[in-house]
Amino acid sequence: MGKIVKIFICILPMSLKRILLQRLYGYEIHPTARIGLSFFYPKKLKIGKNSKIGHFNTAVHLDEVIIGEYVSIGRGNWITGFATGTTSRHFKHQPDRVSILKVGNHSAITKGHHIDCTSPIIIGNFVTIAGYNSQLLTHSINVYDNRQDSKQITIGDYCFVGTNVVVLGGASLPSYSVLGAKAMLNKQYTEEWKLYGGNPAKPITDIPKDAKYFSRETGFVD
Predict the structure, then answer these.
(1) How far, CA to CA in Å, does 125 sit from each of 9, 55, 81, 147, 219?
(2) Do 173 and 155 form a contact (C-beta atoms < 8 A)?
């Protein structure tokens, strides 16, 4: 569909927007889900019950976006990737690569973040991507092989990702963890119940297992 049609759909009331997105693009959007004034057009889209996408978000050049139940995506987020099936030479050495964002139930992405899903970004349940200006970047130039390369990013369940962080391809933040503000995560960690911070990020201290954020039953924090 042309860009003008897509822009027109963006400004429609949700009742009409849902019908057109389902009929024209085959998207799966729960009747209770909401999309604001956002240009949100991956190849495939699935949005679960009571989830909401705020205003002024962009999601393009993606194979798929899967949003669970009770998910909140704030405003002004730039979500991009490099969809498969193109004639570009980029990432030809990764034939199994897919450009996917998956956000688990009761998770939240706040405002003004850049999320690059050239390879998958998997965000677990009850996660908060907090604050502003964080970058989750799955792709970069491989200076050794002189080519574009990409690796998956994984964020486990019940994680808190602080403001203005950088998470690079291949990194993994384990469940029940905090990534401190302005940290740069570039490794796969496995130790849960830790505060990670610094540049590059590393375990700093333990998190008490009775901290209430990590046992809440709803994603929204009063």
Answers:
(1) 30, 23, 22, 34, 8
(2) yes
Residue 26 · residue 19 · CB < 8 Å: no
Query: Each residue of 102-130: pLDDT tens digit?
Result: 999 999 999 999 999 999 999 999 999 99
The pTM is what?
0.96
The whole-angstrom separation of Cα 152 and Cα 138 is 6
**Are the C-beta atoms of residues 196 and 183 closer than 8 Å to each other?**
yes
Q: Quickly count: other Cβ atoms within 10 Å of residue 68's Cβ.
A: 20
For residues 12 and 4, give the distance between their C-alpha atoms in angstroms, rounded to a whole number: 13
* SS3 (DSSP) at 3: helix
Condensed to tens digits (0 to 9), the pLDDT of residues 77-107 reads 999 999 999 888 899 999 999 999 999 999 9
| One-letter identity of residue 107 | S
Percent of the chain with pLDDT over 70: 100
d(CA 148, CA 170): 14
CA distance 164 to 130: 9
Instruction: Please write down the long-range contacts of 167-170, taking CB distance under 8 Å and 24 or more positions apart.
Output: 167/134, 167/135, 167/136, 167/137, 168/137, 168/140, 169/118, 169/119, 169/137, 169/138, 169/139, 169/140
